[in-house]
Amino acid sequence: MNFTFSANSSSHDAAVEPSTFQVGQIWQQVGDRPRDVSHLIDRTYRYHSVRELHWHLADRFARPIRSLVLSRV
């Protein structure tokens, strides 16, 4: 499964909280067309890394982590 996402970075005080991002929108590549799957995740959640989002998607779609490809635009 291939996913592409756009992110909104937060600008919190890095001394208090590490930088985080929220998913603005996420698409799953289905054939040659992207399909918006933003409604399937909590877009208010603040991810600490792309790796964390990768694991979240694997859990959400009940897929092995290695079967997902994730890229940021």
Labels describing this entry:
single chain; 73 residues; alpha+beta; four-stranded mixed sheet; 1 helix; 15% helix; globular
SSE string, helix = H, strand = E?
EEEHE
- Average pLDDT figure: 90
**Taking Cα atoms only, what radius of gyration do you get, to the nearest Å?**
13 Å
Task: Report the oligomer.
Answer: single chain
- The secondary structure category is alpha+beta
Largest sheet: 4 strands, mixed
Distance between the termini: 17 Å
Characterization of the model:
It is a single chain. The protein is α+β, with helices and mostly antiparallel strands. It has one domain. Helices cover 15% and strands 36% of the residues. The protein contains one helix and four strands; from the N terminus they run βββαβ. A four-stranded mixed β-sheet has the order 3-2-1-4, with no helix packed on it. The longest helix has 11 residues, at 50-60. The radius of gyration is 13 Å and the shape is globular. 10% of the residues are buried. The model has no long low-confidence stretch (mean pLDDT 90).
